[in-house]
Amino acid sequence: MENSKLKDLIEQYLKAYNTFNIDGMIDVLHESVHFKNITNGNVDAQTQGIEEFRALAEQSAQIFSQRCQVVKSIAFTDDKAEVEIDYEGILSVDLPNGMKAGESVKLQGKSIYQMKEEKLVLIEDYS
Question: Which first-to-last residue range defines the signal peptide (predicted)?
Answer without folding.
Answer: none
